[in-house]
Amino acid sequence: MSIEDYRINAFVRSVLVKRWIDTSRVDFGTSNGVVYLRGLLRQTYGKRQLHQFDEVDELLGLVKRLEREIRSIPGVRDTVFKLENFEKKGGRWKRKVKPLV
């Protein structure tokens, strides 16, 4: 990992913390300017009690902002998100639906 990748990681951590992301549930790293983020996206702080559907809408907005902020970090060439609860299909973020067992 290059010094530049370490610097990008520090910026990514600050973005996650600023947005109250539970960093114990998300792993991230950078390789050659590509930021990898995987795990369960959730916040540790909520301004109010949200209905389940409101929470999903709020998290959808959050994942869009996260992607935009991380991409704007100098030196970031690309982002790869492998989230347990959201996925990007056709350029749009969507909530992953858990299969019924």
User: Which term fits the overall shape?
Assistant: globular
Q: Could you state the order of secondary-structure elements as H and E? A: HEEHEEE
Alpha-carbon distance between the termini?
A: 41 Å
Strand content: 25-35%
The CATH architecture would be: 2-Layer Sandwich
Query: What class, by secondary structure content?
Result: alpha+beta
Poorly predicted regions? none
Tally of distinct domains: 1
How does this structure look, described?
By secondary structure, this protein is an alpha+beta fold. It has a single domain (3-95), classed as 2-Layer Sandwich (Alpha-Beta Plaits). The protein is built from 2 helices and 5 strands. The strands form 2 sheets. It has a 3-stranded mixed beta sheet with strand order 1-2-3, with helices on one face. A two-stranded antiparallel sheet has the order 4-5. A hairpin with a 2-residue loop joins strand 1 (26-31) and strand 2 (34-39). The longest helix has 20 residues, at 52-71. The protein is globular, with a radius of gyration of 14 Å. The N and C termini lie far apart (41 Å). The mean pLDDT is 87.
Offer a few descriptive terms.
101 residues, alpha+beta, Alpha-Beta Plaits, three-stranded mixed beta sheet, 36% helix
